[in-house]
Amino acid sequence: MLRPGQENPCSPGSKKLVKANPLKHSGLLKKKEIFVGNLPLDIKEEEIAFLFKDFGIKSLRKHNNSFKSFAFLELTAPEAAKLAVKLMNGQLLKGRPMSVAFMENRKIHEVLKTSTPMPDLEVIPARECGITNGATHISPVNQRACYAVPMEMRSSFLFHVLKGCFGDAKWLRSVVGVAGEVGLLVTDTLPLMPYFWAIVLNEECYKSMEKLFKALAEAEAGLPFLAKQEVQRGARCLAQCDIGDEGSAWNRCWVLDPLGDLAVVFFVDFGRCASLPLNSLRKLDAEQFWEIRPLAQPFMLEEGVFPPQVIRRQILEGTLKGPSQWEPHILRFVVKTD
């Protein structure tokens, strides 16, 4: 997000999204490759990519047989790999603790030599699609391109967040009104999936961004940090969020759950969940900071999926084609082609 003195995201100098190369393994890089074991046998590649999306995925390979399922991930930097091992090792997934560790180059090489090409994404059953608008089945025409709706994009999840932060969930209905040709500032993408969060680049949104960021910048230094006992589900707070090449910026968030010395929070203006140290959260409970509705909203690509790298702070130009089949507040987007 913008901070005072940063460039206007609407300016011509902002970056444009470019097509990525097909997913492939780019070689064995020391300390950037991690092993993820003890995975559920029925886990899908897009689920693994979603779990590790905040660490910057360069490539992903899943392997399984009748007895076990595991994966190799190459991350963007050694620091990201170290953090992934620290935060994700032992985390429960469908009732079983994941094993996340660095892998010896020799062992990785032996596995990759016998690995098969990455298969197509598996079809998601209707019951896993996050359907909350009354639909009960997937029509045959859509079965070939069905992706599970990410939890933080489902209306059932957003309803609770919006009620907790803003006192109502009217925002869910208001975002559907956006239509036609638009420019979108991407705040987060989901690797190997069509879903993403973005800010609509229009005058109204730009004024809201200026007003919000100015208020947060002026108040940040004087806001107290939350005490450990105050970090509970539903706490409204301020925390630093990764915004891409520019580093991080203070932004509004809502606590989902404390986990030991960490807290899982949802950044309402980015549409992104993150695990942060408990002692890094500032108190932000004054109503004046919650008068502006969320800046970002969920979209999905009408065709194609995003590459394994997380894309942030880039501009997409294209046309909105109406609500998605599963969640009416998620708008379908067609990227403009030159």
Describe what you observe in this structure.
The protein has helices at 45-51, 78-88, 105-113, 155-166, 171-174, 203-219, and strands at residues 33-37, 57-64, 69-75, 92-93, 96-97, 99-102, 180-189, 195-200, 236-244, 247-259, 262-267, 272-277, 282-283, 297-301, 315-323, 331-335. Strand 2 and strand 3 form a beta hairpin. 18% of the residues lie in helices and 29% in strands. The chain has 6 helices and 16 strands. It is globular and about 50 Å long. With 338 residues, the protein is of the alpha+beta class. A 5-stranded mixed beta barrel has the order 7-8-14-16-15. It has a 5-stranded antiparallel β-sheet with strand order 12-11-10-9-13. A 4-stranded antiparallel β-sheet has the order 2-3-1-6, covered by helices on one side.
Per-chain topology:
Blueprint (H helix, E strand, L loop, with lengths): L32 E5 L7 H7 L5 E8 L4 E7 L2 H11 L3 E2 L2 E2 L1 E4 L2 H9 L41 H12 L4 H4 L5 E10 L5 E6 L2 H17 L16 E9 L2 E13 L2 E6 L4 E6 L4 E2 L13 E5 L13 E9 L7 E5 L3
Parallel strand pairs: 14-16
Antiparallel strand pairs: 1-3, 1-6, 2-3, 4-5, 7-8, 7-15, 8-14, 9-10, 9-13, 10-11, 11-12, 15-16
Main beta sheet: strand number and arrangement? Answer: 5 strands, mixed, barrel
Instruction: Tell me the quaternary state.
Output: single chain
State which percent range the strand residues make up. 25-35%
Helix content: 10-25%
Summary, kept brief:
With 338 residues, the chain is of the alpha+beta class.
